[in-house]
Amino acid sequence: VNPTTAAKRASGSFCSPKNLTELLNAITEAGDDAVIIAGGQSLLPTLTWSVAPTICLIDVTQVSEMRKMVIATDYVELGAATNFSDILASEVGHVLPALAQALRSVGTFTIRNRATVGGSLAWADPRAQLPLVLLIHDTIVCTTRRELPIQEFIQGPFRSALKSGEVVTAIRIHCADHAHRGFAQLQDRNSAGKAIVSVGLSRHLVDGEETLQVAVAGLADRPVRSPALSLGKRPSAESRSLAVTGWLERASTDNPLLADPFHSARYRREMAGVLIRRLDHEVRR
Amino acid sequence: MPGVTLQMHVNGEPRSVTIAPLATLATALRDGLGLTGTHLGCEEGVCGSCTVLVDGRSVRACVTLAAQMQGASITTAEGFAAIPRLRAVQLAFVEHFAAQCGFCTSGMMAVVSEYLADPTIEDHAAEKSIRERLDAVICRCTGYQSIVNAVRALAQTRAAHR
Fold this sequence. Notes:
The complex is a heterodimer of chains A (about 280) and B (about 160).
Chain A: H1 3-9, E1 13-15, H2 20-30, E2 34-37, H3 43-49, E3 56-59, E4 69-71, E5 75-79, H4 84-89, H5 92-95, H6 97-104, H7 109-112, H8 117-123, H9 129-135, E6 138-143, E7 147-149, H10 150-153, E8 154-156, E9 159-160, E10 168-174, E11 180-186, E12 197-206, E13 209-217, E14 224-225, E15 229-233, H11 237-254, H12 265-284
Parallel strand pairs in A: 1-3, 2-3
Antiparallel strand pairs in A: 4-5, 5-10, 6-7, 6-10, 8-9, 11-12, 12-13, 13-14, 13-15
Helix pairs in contact in A: 6-9, 11-12
Chain B: E1 4-10, E2 13-19, H1 25-32, E3 51-54, E4 57-60, E5 73-75, H2 84-95, H3 105-116, H4 127-134, H5 145-161
Parallel strand pairs in B: 1-5
Antiparallel strand pairs in B: 1-2, 3-4, 3-5
């Protein structure tokens, strides 16, 4: 069946609630048939290639509470329906440069015009840049039912903590901790903007005592984050490197690994190490 | 089959079309309105051939749900000739042989016109920034050089007129 025919044959329904109350009512009404759609950049190919006769598409891009963007002195709140281009056009990049760097790396300009915060989190692609970079920030995910830290939200490949009928409404990132953060990624030329490996790093310096925290996507079946790696005072280049490679090895034994014929698990781990070393150097300059 | 009735401004004209809830913008434009200048390549958001302008922003019509486009203002390849700024893009593509088979051209022109209108770009004629933006559309024929030439010429002409 060609996709156009499949999409035509499928029926179902569509609604576009304007606020949270309308959204919750629509979800209750649709029950198990509810499919939440935001920008649709990852969801639509899957939907149009499958024949799903009874789905109720619920558009969240018009929900006013989910379109907010708040840039305060100590936190940034991004509504789940805000798209990456709008975030990049705002002042968010000045406050959270690593986040902006990660968002600029997603897909292409055209994709970023539609891709949303909530969509990326709910889709939970193990290689996605946004969940990865949020792991090295102090991030809370707000849903229609609760608030939870990003590390608890991420549950596995294409799996989040969202329960049936629960929708991400916003993320809140605290940014008053004076840490230095960075993001870097490795792409191949046919990647269409999807990183093979991407890394995030945050570096805290308190009374000369240094701690590093790193996160990697594209290594395991979900983005993984290191504990705070204590480096002590004036750590040598060797001890910085050892702390990171030691964690990368542990992360590689503790999690199911990603691999494809072009990028083996070992290659991904090596590249993650290289990217982290470069980023560490960059962040310290 | 329950349909969604969509009111949009397409190439400057109010249009109404009834579509399936799951229909993409590409299907609504091509099958619903007969605007076949929007070309479907990969149908999964990778190749960029189906790119159109929605309220001035480039959007992949194959991964955009038509039902979400209620009230939107859409410009497709068919509408370029009537808008001087977009007509200039068409003429530059002709002048610089920036189209070969033409399959990606409508998408490419949408991306280029959005790029040229982007106020955050410091130098629109800079090769690096042109090439970075053109990554949104795959061209299998030209090797991109002629397209880069067309965009650079457009940017330089505009800068000279400022």
